[in-house]
Amino acid sequence: MGSGVLEEARALLGGAARVVVLTGSGISAESGVPTFRGEEGLWKSFRPEDLASPEAFRRVPRLVWEWYGWRRAKVAPCAPNPGHVALARRALRGGMTLVTQNVDGLHEVAALACAGGGDASPALPLELHGALFRDRCTRCGRASEGRRPVDVSSLETLPRCGACGSLLRPDVVWFGEALDAHTLHAAFTHAAQADVCLVVGTSALVYPAASVPLITLERGGCVVEVNPRETPLSPRARVVLRGGAAEILPALLA
Q1: Distance CA 184, CA 166 (A)
Q2: Contacts of 181 (CB under 8 A, 6+ apart)
């Protein structure tokens, strides 16, 4: 990555009144968050697609909760890296909206740490795919924090809603489910208003999240991509910065 390319990207972001950021698994991989695919992603004899679905939860809720308890234990020790921190600090200054495909909660942790007890809301992301450490009631829809250990010894010991007593589920978007309409609408609205869309660590293959930078382009804005590898979005980006987010974002957003 040459200094001229970095300066061009900094100038674009510095001159933008509104910036929308789309982050994917690449930024969290640098914090050690596993992808749950490939050899390191194997859990017993199941694929993520076999368990992350409404059908699986109706059929074997104990097994699904066992898997999510294992996932939470794997992700819990992970901490925000300098890329998360750089985005949080920049978002707290205003004019930037974070949109993430990740469910690990590291953007929120970084926002709260950088806010130092102040208002962290400008740096809290729109979570397109939900949150791993949040539960949702299967009946009343009430959301609650999900960081306590899960007892999967029986159906009766699974997490229950404090309001109506019904079974809780992880508040993530499963295969076959639609994204939350309000969250998606907010992401698309910010993308349409943005002068620049900064795309970090995403393959640009998963829709509808991959539509965020395309909307910015359609409305006359430009795209800055940060990714170690070529993506389908790369040819349409004004500036492409090859490398990891933890290294590039602090220099880009300083």
Answers
A1: 27
A2: none
The total of other beta-carbon atoms located within 10 Å of residue 222's CB is 17
CATH architecture designation of domain 1-33+79-129+179-254: 3-Layer(aba) Sandwich (3.40)
Averages of pLDDT over runs of 10 residues in the chain (254 residues) are: 86 98 96 70 68 94 94 95 98 98 98 97 98 97 93 96 96 96 98 98 94 98 97 98 97 95
* Model-wide pTM > 0.85: yes
**What number does CATH give the domain 35-77+131-172?**
3.30.1600.10
Based on the number of CB atoms within 10 Å of its own CB, is 119 exposed (0-12), middle (13-18) or buried (19 or more)? Answer: exposed
Q: Does 190 participate in catalysis according to the annotation?
A: no
* Residue tagged active-site, from 129, 182, 185, 190: 129
Six token digits for residue 234: 């790369």
